[in-house]
Structure formats: structure tokens, C-alpha cells
Write a structure and sequence with these properties.
Elements lengths: L1 H23 L5 E3 L5 E3 L2 H11 L1 H17 L6 H9 L1 H26 L7 H35 L10 H44 L1
Antiparallel strand pairs: 1-2
Helix pairs in contact: 1-2, 1-3, 2-3, 2-5, 2-6, 2-7, 3-5, 4-5, 5-6, 6-7
Length: 210
């Protein structure tokens, strides 16, 4: 029985990894906005994997997501390419290390919430909603800490920022992606929750029939 569970887990992880890769290299994963910020939908399979398969699997999916994001800095993303030239290690941290945390933390939170949520619906919904929010917050805070000078001197001027940096720059950056973050959170809440519940029912039915 345990070997069947392991095979099923690996199969689901491989499928979700393939979905992340497909979304990363097709228009399905990123929606480019007129103001230069991208709405990221790749967090949906990362959230699903972290909730259903656990934080370790979520970390793997977050790593794959982060690496695809980092690779886009080599020409596919103008902002990413600029940040890569400024600080390659900092860009790697913002793109990859943060995304691993985005994969791990929802799984840990779901384990905690599932102790008190018998239906599992509320726990899934909360984690699905928070995954893209966490992704946005970690990425922006990382950018602010590592690249505040770059944003202030180069890229932010194209968006009309005229402040003095510091916390005002962080607030501006958060406001710039607020609409995008809400769109990501709404999509992950609806689609992620639906997928998680559907998969849970399928797995439970298979276990009963086995």
C-alpha cells in the first residue's frame, strides 16, 4: 500500500512539474501588463502540489518555478535582464530562493490548518489564496532590499516615481503590483481550491476501491 502511495505521489509531482514548465514557456504562465509587471499564474500548480503532496513537494515545484523565472532574466524579461546585470546573486535569490519558500510554506500552513478543519475546504482555500500573496510580497521585499538603488535610479523613473526611496519606495512597489497580486490570488483561490478538492475525491475513491 505504501509503495502505491509513493508511486502516486511521484506521478502527481511529475505531472505538476510538467504543468509548471509548460506554463513557464507559454503565455499560460504569465500575463504581461501595459505597466511592465507580469501577472504570474504558475503559483497555482505550486500551491496545489504543496497542499496535496506536502511542503517538500511544494519546495521542489517552487524550485522549478524559480529556475524558470531566473532563466527568463537572460533576455526574455527586460527587467530581469537589467537586475541580472546589476547583481546576479541577488537576482537568483529573488527568483529562486524566494520561490522555494513559496512552495514550502503553504504546505506547512495546510498541515496546521487541517488539524482544525474537518472539511479541509477552508484550509485549502486559505493556502491557495495566500500562496500568490506570499509570492508577491517576498519578491517585492527582496527587490526592495537588494535592488532599491536600481529601482530608484533606473526602472522606477519610467513609472513616474518621484520619492526619496526607503519605505516610500517599498510602498510604491507594492502598490504597483497590488492589482496583479489580487488577480493572482483570486485565480489561485478559485482554480487551486477546485483542483485540490477534485484530486482529493479521486484519491479517496481510489483508496476505497483498492
Amino acid at each position: 500500500m505504501k509503495s502505491k502511495t509513493n508511486v502516486r505521489t511521484l506521478t502527481q509531482l511529475a505531472l505538476l512539474t510538467a504543468i509548471v514548465l509548460i506554463m513557464a514557456y507559454t503565455p499560460l504562465g504569465y500575463l504581461k501588463t501595459p505597466w511592465g509587471v507580469e501577472v504570474t499564474f504558475i503559483v497555482i500548480p505550486v500551491a496545489v502540489g504543496s497542499i496535496l503532496l506536502g511542503p517538500a513537494a511544494g519546495g521542489i515545484l517552487g524550485l522549478v518555478f524559480g529556475l524558470t523565472s531566473f532563466f527568463q532574466c537572460f533576455g526574455a524579461s527586460p527587467l530581469g535582464a537589467m537586475l541580472l546585470q546589476e547583481n546576479a546573486a541577488g537576482t537568483f535569490f529573488c527568483c529562486v530562493v524566494n520561490r522555494v519558500l513559496v512552495g514550502v510554506l503553504p504546505g506547512l500552513l495546510y498541515k496546521l490548518l487541517s488539524r482544525y478543519d474537518r472539511t479541509k475546504v477552508a484550509g485549502i482555500a486559505v493556502c491557495c489564496f495566500l500562496t500568490p500573496v506570499l509570492n508577491t510580497v517576498l519578491y517585492i521585499v527582496g527587490n526592495w532590499v537588494i535592488f532599491s538603488g536600481t529601482w530608484l535610479n533606473i526602472s522606477v523613473s519610467t513609472y513616474g516615481y518621484s520619492g526619496e526611496g526607503g519605505l516610500s519606495l517599498l510602498g510604491f512597489m507594492m502598490g504597483l503590483v497590488a492589482v496583479n497580486g489580487l488577480a493572482e490570488a483570486a485565480a489561485c483561490l478559485l482554480l487551486g481550491t477546485a483542483v485540490c478538492k477534485a484530486v482529493q475525491k479521486i484519491v479517496k475513491r481510489a483508496e476505497v476501491m483498492a
